[in-house]
Design a protein that fits this description.
It holds the Pfam family MIP. By secondary structure, the chain is mostly helical. The protein has six helices and no strands. The termini are far apart.
């Protein structure tokens, strides 16, 4: 392919570049301002009534249950005479595979936070509402306790 040449005057080109950067700066500023405010969010008294919230809470509980059940089961089931490195390897592989699978399964329902620290961090960053974060944390703790109880029992 041959070279292409543009017949634009130098002073006109500089003006176009400056205009382009000004537009990009305005777009960046608008995107940042939309991230920080909570406009467009549903009030808590209305959010409690939505089915999607309760589906997400149940999904977080199930995801935490499965994660704790799989990882604790892998650590406990590595074998009685197994070396420490075998237990660590099986736990690490189970943890990685479990979190990858659970994220794929539950991301479209609840975001697949699985960990209460993730839910709290997203609440602080205003990515989820405080009500949703509190319900997620309660569901995750309940699911983790149930998963540990299932392994213990």
């Amino acid at each position: 392919m041959g070279e292409q040449t543009f017949n634009i005057a130098d002073d006109n080109l500089e003006q176009h570049i400056v205009t382009l950067f000004e537009k990009l700066e305005c777009l960046r500023r608008d995107a940042n301002s939309n991230d920080t405010n909570l406009s467009g969010r549903v009030p808590a008294r209305l959010e409690v009534r939505t089915l999607s919230l309760w589906k997400a809470v149940v999904a977080e509980c199930a995801a935490s249950f499965l994660y704790v059940f799989i990882v604790c089961g892998a650590a406990g089931g590595a074998g009685v005479g197994a070396s420490a490195s075998a237990v660590l390897l099986s736990t690490a592989l189970a943890s990685g595979c479990a979190i990858a699978t659970l994220t794929l399964c539950f991301a479209h329902i609840s975001g697949a936070h699985v960990n209460p620290a993730v839910s709290a961090a997203l609440c602080v960053r205003r990515r989820v509402s405080p009500l949703r974060a509190a319900l997620y944390v309660a569901a995750q703790c309940g699911g983790a306790i149930a998963g540990a109880a299932a392994i213990y029992g």
